[in-house]
């Protein structure tokens, strides 16, 4: 059910937003008509580049969302690898052999070859810091002829193709690597060529007519970086932007419902319970906390209905999870008897302190005494990882750059997991996590992942509450914009304005 708008912008705020937009989108209207017919697509992005659009940073996801930089492999909806710049691959122990697509050219006119792939992957493997997808992975690439690349890892890794789908391992032309930083301008292989970057304010892309996958329908993309959420929403409302990233919940209610799409994100808001010490060392009290939580009221009250009540750790962004999930047997709830607990969370995500306040009321009603400790994330992470809280509220990405949730589950719930806030040490959980991580990709791996999720849920070490959504705004004239839970696609070759 849609909740009514709770606030409207006062006249002074409207004036301020209009002034902001005038600066952000100045000249955009004159650039709307493309030289070869059709209209250019105007996009309002939330975060400006942090590393000059280097593909070795999180800026890589912008290059991917604009369809300018491509990878050897892409992922389908289930997270399985599909051909992209590579057409096929085979595994032999620690080595994977990739056959490259022929007839691909970079935006500077040079050809895609095994040597160019080796250069891009080598730059990523040698970077400091490494791209997240290669954290802890020893990867080397060698050319075998003009169109074959052999990728070898230090240990046998069933997820190499999925790793190579990460935008941080995009393949760029040799000229991108000639300076001190990686420069993606004019160096991609996608349907749109990045032609200009204006610092942290804008970027311009033009259609690349030599694209191997067929000419894009739109003549180009004009990007503006607009960190202010109110301004982004106003840009959609006023017609100054065609596609808008991350519309704030507070602004969504002020927009025509036909112009917004709520995209399920692979991100779960979870209450982690300390299984090592304190009240929640007792499994019956963990069960009592689980039963006391009313996630639906949190979704309605804090998220204004724009989230999904959790059924497990993995949400609707992974549609196969609910299909494979079975009921989990858990401990019976005990009596809290006035036990005092401290719940920690952080202010960096605005909704989390509200979630904490709601949980405090719910758990106190169940018989716990609850104290809250809310700080900035940088000042609380170390205490959370050290087990200083009885419980901790975290909004956590459940698939990392490989598109696979096994790494998240291991990190958060294995005895030696690097992000084990619950301090969980359970041999059964460890076995299930190890099995999931070592299973080949595909249906068998997905089943092993759900079995690992069930093993974690059975301990009540974590109580998943809700799965978040991101709200994307598309003008009525937009056709074919991508609504991607992994935030890898936005404007594709098929996206255009009618």
TrEMBL record:
The keyword Signal applies. SUPFAM superfamilies: Periplasmic binding protein-like II. The keyword Glycoprotein does not apply. One of its GO terms (biological process) is peptide transport. Keywords: Signal. It comes from the Bacteria. This is ABC transporter substrate-binding protein. One of its GO terms (molecular function) is peptide transmembrane transporter activity. Residues 1-26 form the signal peptide. PROSITE patterns: PROKAR_LIPOPROTEIN (PS51257). InterPro entries: Peptide/Ni-bd, SBP_5, SBP_5_dom. Gene3D superfamilies: Dipeptide-binding Protein, Domain 3, Periplasmic binding protein-like II. It holds the Pfam family SBP_bac_5. Residues 82-418 form the Solute-binding protein family domain. It comes from Streptomyces resistomycificus. One of its GO terms (cellular component) is periplasmic space.
